Amino acid sequence: MKTDNNRRSFLKNISLATFSTLALSGCNMKEIDEYLQQNFRELTDEEKDEIVKNLGEKYKKRYGKDFHVSYKPAMEGVLFGYALDISRCIGCRKCVTACVKENNQSRDPQIQWIQVLQMEKEKGVDLAHSDVHYNPEKVPEKGYFYFPVQCQQCRNPQCVTVCPAKATWQEKDGIVVVDYNWCIGCRYCMAACPYGARHFNWGEPNIPVEEINTEVHYLGNRPRQKGVVEKCTFCVQRTREGKYPTCVEICPVGARKFGNLLDPESEVRYILDNKRVLVLKQELNTQPKFYYYFG
Amino acid sequence: MNFTRFLTGSLKIIFQGGKPYFAWLILLTILILWGGYGYYGQLTDGLITTNMRDSVSWAFYIGNFTFLVGVAAAAVMLVIPAYIYHWGPIKEIVIFGELLAVCAVIMSIAFVVVDIGHPLRFWHMLPFIGTMNFPHSILAWDFFVLLTYFAINATVVIHLLYSAFNKKEYNKKLVLFLVLASIPMAVGIHTVTAFLFNALPARPFWNSALLAPRFLASAFCSGPAILLILFQLLRKYTKFEIKNEALFTIAELMVYSMFIYLFFTVAELFKEFYSGTEHLLYWEYLLFGLGDNKEIVFYSWASIIFGVIAFFLFLIPKTRKNFVTLNIGAVLIYSSVYIEKGMALIIPGFTPDVLGQIYVYKPSMTEVQTAVMIFSLGSLLFTFLTKIAIAIIFEGYNIDSLERKERKK
Prior knowledge:
Chain A is of the alpha+beta class. Chain A has helices spanning 2-24, 29-35, 45-63, 94-102, 158-162, 188-192, 236-239, 246-250, 267-274; strands at 68-70, 80-85, 115-120, 144-149, 168-170, 176-178, 198-200, 215-217, 229-231, 256-260, 277-278, 290-293. Chain A folds into 2 domains: 1-36; 72-295, Alpha-Beta Plaits (2-Layer Sandwich).
């Protein structure tokens, strides 16, 4: 790590020269430190502690609440998998709104990590004829079924391959995450994702203070800035603490199942063994860990 | 010391000229200010001021970027025929071609900078100080080849011009080596830019091996079109000499490129329409619209019609060798490729989006203003550099002339 330290001190020296003018014009040292922060995967635990502490203070200032910012790493022997029962889903979109709240997604401009597609029963899983803006009095509608899509947590994630700055990667437990402090906002990952799972903060995100979730993870649901990409993380702030993702908990019909693919006793494993599953756009070889099945 | 004199001397030169020259500078300045005002809005409020959204996450900016990479590539590739056909003063053709290439590369990179959410974080994708995703990310490759290409061309023109300014012989070996290196690099930058789109299985519209060949063929239509007009202007107003025959040969070469481009496109269209898979949707949106969504149809047909007219104007010897029709053809083919790369390449790649939804995209005022700003800045830079180059090559602007002036004082 010696070279790394040199590199960082070198950067800091440059910064002192270059940014002293900026500092005079109102930029404080913390902002400069944040600007010079390295890729999350290159940080030591001490640096992470420091960063997380600063983030907590920053959020406290902005939202007036105490945040618990975690950077808990993946657990050993865990590979998360998800199963969704298409025949049960009624298209109520409770998962969508619960996800928005849990994961601090911007309300205006609106960002939603889960998109539920309404599909004609006669056509089967046909994206070209699906509708994401369905809005009837009551769901489910006759002749239609519902097909929720969110990050498929690919084993072979195209979005990670194309990122020019290594700002997004797959964690040991299989979750694809984004370092919001490292993302340059080029949106190449969005062009590469076959599932529309990645969302961009086109403007400054807005969340009502009374609705903010203060239990956050650095790589997950912490408040984002404008100009960066975000995505579903299987609720990394919950699942690494042994809880279910919010969408699994909220689903009123029990269409959503979640668990450890490496655990032979887990519910997802049971579904893989006993039901017939499909993955979306299997021909692209993305190898999702998100399975659809007909229960 | 000579270099500071060169700089101050050049500074004086770029602010000398007739009324039309100053009118041109004032026009560009107004456009830069107007465009800059739009870009300022984007800087403060974010990319929400554009009409891009999650469904269509790249659009006009990236289209412009792609177009300008083509211009940069083609400007240098023109050196080959210039050499083979003995068009006359090859050194001058190299200089003006590479000046255009340098400006086009700067503009193309500027279009990427305005497109990204955090331009100040660009160092994250550099090697050593950041974490460049090399060799996996094609964007990292593109950045690398564009920068190399820029460095090569800038070195050649600066060396040629600065040696001429100092009345010294330029380093022939170095220049020959760099010019020879810049030709495959020119092919390289446009190929890598095509690969940027081409290898994304999520986007069937681009996922065709013909994309890179089509890029090159279309670039060889748009880049020379600019030079065709520039050479005529230079010939008229300076001592620059180029034979009529050379200009007609450029046009002839452009016809071959247009034909190849047409052939590739027909091959692509045949495959898509005859097989009629679900991937046809994107082509349908481009050419006919989907249902009521016909927003882009106008652009695609404008590009096709401009291109076809230019093709015939350049194909028929009589119109090719008439400067009026030749110039009309050059403007038409330039516009055709610009519309094709700016609108018809990127947007259908995202419409319908990966989940089959249609988001109707049209550039916002901010996007138009920002593009105008970049094009005007690029034109201003190109004007200044050309002015200095003309002074050095044709008007005897050199170290002696400066000294003479100083002595007079």
